[in-house]
Amino acid sequence: MKLGTGIGWRPEIADAVEALPGIDWVEAVAENLCEDHLPASLTRLRERGVTVVPHGVSLGLGGADRPDPGRLAGLAARAELLGAPLVTEHVAFVRAGGPLSASPVLEAGHLLPVPRTWDALDVLCENVRIAQDSLPVPLALENIAALISWPGEELTEGQFLAELVERTGVRLLIDVANLHTNHVNRGEDPSTALDELPVEAIAYVHVAGGGEKDGVWHDTHAHPVTRPVLDVLKQLRSRVDPPGVLLERDDDFPPAEELAGELTAIRGALASAAAAPAAGRQRPARAPEPAPRAAGARERTGLSQTALLSTLVAGTPAPDGFDRRRLGVQSRALAGKRAEVVAKVAPELPEILGGGYREAFLAYARNRPMSAGYRRDALGFAEHLLVTDRPADEAARRRLTRWWQERAAPRPPRRGTRLVHAARTALLGR
After folding, report:
1. Labelling 246: which of 40, 226, 240, 298 has CA 20 to 30 A away?
2. Euclidean distance between CA atoms 221 and 225, whole angstroms
3. What is the pLDDT of residue 141?
4. How far apart are CA 182 and CA 145, in angstroms?
């Protein structure tokens, strides 16, 4: 299906998206949509004939556990509500722990890279087949940006994705900004990845901006698209004419004219790189067949992912072979994103706490990994402040108490709640 040129639909820029010229389709984060009704803006776009694709972020198909049936059903319902031609997700894990590792479930709150190993590939392929059987439309999976590398990887990114397509028939969503990010952070050549990919499996392409911090490149979706990212887009276009290309922006939204300018730059990059004739390129050889392995790929994958995530969100010792400095950068990035998302989910908290919100939340998150969603995280943070007699300002504390009461329980947490916190801490092994 030919999609054309699109942009990520977000509530903050809904009016701008509707007014932008030349928009053929939009992509909406699936988890931000209700299952039974659409925002008025998306309804108007659909009435105009604009295709809307739901983009999932929470399935965690690269995780050790099989996909959650409830999450799959929710993604399927949104696809049907939108009349979408396909749905998309990520090659990533977003949680770990549970029965496979006999440990508490931990949520990353972000997309984390799976190890490019045969074990992880086996698990991912089975999870993808389960998802495909549960969805009413085809599935495409996106390559992610990463700050860290797994030790002992057995496949390149291109080989890993090519094997995934070969085994499952899943389509690909190639993010050229993520290829650039992995080039800067992990030394991986985008050209090599593109050469190894089955480009005929590409459903569409993401283009986004980023920025440098702590000596690494962060895929922020909050900065303008850079020239190196457009250069990777040109490399991809020289190999294949992608069915669709989409501009992503998730934060620090610019005026509509700047979004239009970025779309113009994307169209220009595509136009300047004509696709090479298919006969002029040879498919790279498949990755070598793996050596026979013992059963238990899910268990091994679960243990390794739990150990890594525990380091990132709970401060446990780093697993052998990882770059400890990079783990620290990733850990701070996860905590920072967690603070930002909680502030969006519960905007009253930064209003009540003022300039002290971020410091207080990061201190809270340092010892309390997220084990459920962001709304539960916001309640847990407020509860923690109240049982420790904070904030110091009495009027602010009263406001926080009322906020907590309206959302959690008719009575505010008492000092006795400290026992519950202590029990949770003991269960988490801290």
Report:
1. 40
2. 9
3. 98
4. 6
CA 392 to each of CA 244, 353, 354: distance values in angstroms, whole numbers, following the listed order: 53, 10, 12
pLDDT of residue 414: 54
Sign of the Cα pseudo-torsion (220, 222, 228, 229, in order): positive
Question: Do the beta carbons of residue 25 and residue 53 sit within 8 Å?
Answer: yes
The CA dihedral of 85, 277, 239, 228, to the nearest 10 degrees, is: -120
Whether a cis peptide bond, with omega within 30° of 0, leads into 347 is: no
Average pLDDT over residues 343-359: 95
Phi and psi angles of residue 112, each rounded to the nearest 5 degrees, phi first: -120, 150
Instruction: Give pLDDT tens digits for 96-138.
Output: 999 988 889 999 999 999 999 999 999 999 999 999 999 999 9
Largest pairwise CA distance in the chain: 74
Residue whose tokens read 């993010």? 175
